[in-house]
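Q: How would the C-alpha cells look for this protein?
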Amino acid sequence: MQDPEVGLALRPNSAEFTGFLGGVMNEEHRQRLARSLPVGPRGGAARWARKTAPLAAAAAISLLAVASPANAKVLPRASSGGALTVADVAPFTGTDAALGPTYLVSCDAATNAINAAGGVLGHKLNCKSVDTRGDPADAVPAVRQMYASTSNLVLVIGLTSDEAASVVPIINSNKTVMFSMSGQSEFDHTHFDYFYRLVPPDLAESYAMVAIAKYVDHYKKVALAFGNDIGSQTFVNPAVQSIKKAGLKLVSNETLSLSSTTFRTEAAKIAASHPDVVFTEALGPTEAAFLSELKQENNGKVIPVIGTSATISPDWYKSVAAAIGSKTLVTSYAADNLVTETSGPAYSAFSKAIFAEKGKVGNTGSFSTYLSAPGAVHLYDGINIAALAMLEAKSTVPSVYRSFIARVGDGVPGAETVYSFAQGAAALKAGKKIRYEGPGGPTSFDSYHDSTGIFQIDKYGATGQVLVSANIPTSEIRSVS
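A: Here is the predicted structure in C-alpha cell form.
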C-alpha cells in the first residue's frame, strides 16, 4: 500500500503501517486488523473510523480501505441456471445485532417475491448474511471471506455506518453493486461507481429532529443521549450545530456505552439539566436501560424523546415499551423518518411480501413495524431496482447492469410507472420502458448515487404499530441546517 505523502510501501504488521494507523486506531483494533490483511507491499487495508475522530477516519479512507485492483478477486457471477446471491453485510452480533436481521427480513421478502414472479433471466435469488459485528476490524475479513466463498454474488445490501467506511471501497473495487444504509456524510461527496443509497445522511436527520423540536413541539432546551457506536455518533455534531442555529439551548450531551448495563450517571446528569426533550439513538438493550433510569432520576416522569429513524424498529419498541410502559412511550415519543407509502399498489405489494415472512423470524414485537422501518423499506426497493435493472440490461453482471439502476429508478421519457418487480418484469417483457416506484417513493439519484425524499414525523401506537403524525416541510429543515 503506497502512502502518497511519503511514497512509502506500508506492509501490514510493519512499524510504518502501525505508526500510520496510530492516530485512528486503538491498539486492539490495529492488531486485529493487521492480522486480517495479506502480507505484501500491495496488500489491502481497512479504515477504522474512531468514534471520536470521524475526520481522521475520513482522511484514511482512500489509503486504507481500497483493495488493490490488481489483487481484487472478482468471482464468476450468474453461471447458467445458478442461483444469484444477495449478501446482507451488517451486524448480526454485537451491540447493533438487531440491524442485520431486519435487513434480512426485507431481503427475503424481496427475493421471494422476485422468485415467485419468475426470477431474473432464468435465475432464482437467495439471501446470505455476512456478520460484521458492527466493527470495522471484523467487517474487513468478513467481506473478504464473502468474496472468497460466494459465487454468483450480484448485489450487496446493508452496510451500516458501523462498517460502511471500511468495506465500501473493497466492495466497489470488486465491482459489486451495493445499496447502503449508512448515513455517514462522507458518502455525500465521495463517488463510488457501485455505491447507491436511498436513505438520507445523518446530518439531514439531525436537522429534521431539531425541526420537530422547534416547530412542532416548541421545545426550548435539548439534551443528547447517543450510543458510542459509529453510526450513532455521526448524529451528534450536526445536532449540536443545528440546535444552536435554531436558537435552542443544548443543556446536556451524554454518550452511552453500548457495552454497559447501567446508565445511572448519564441519566442523573440529563435529569439535573432539566431538558424539555432528549434526542437519542442507542440500539440494543441500551436505550431501554437508559430511559428507564432517566425516568427514575426524573422523579418517575418520562422526559419526551425524539429518536432517529433507527428507533423505528420492532426490537427497539419492544424493549423500550417493556422498560417504561407502552402507554408512556406512545405519549412521549416521536421520530423523524423518510416519507413512506401507507397505501396504494407499491404498499400493497410490499406489505404482502413482508407479511409472507411473518413467523420465519423471532418474536420481535409488532411485525407491522417492518412496514415503516427504513432498513426494510429502502432495501426492499433497492433489491427490486437492481433486479429490474438486470432484466433491462439483459445481464446479471454488476458492471453491466449498474448503468441501468438510475434508468429504472428515475425513469426516462415515456416510461411506465411500475410498483413491484412482477409488474416491472411484465412491462419490460412487453417492450415498455419503466420507472420503478416502491414503498419508499420515487427516486432521484444525484451524481453520488444518493436519493432521499421528504421527512415525516412518526409515532408508535399502543401495540407498536407506526403512526404517521405529519410531514416536515423542507423549508423548516433548511432553516435549522
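The CA atoms of residues 136 and 366 lie 31 Å apart.

Residues 1-80 have pLDDT under 50 and may be disordered.

Upvote if useful.
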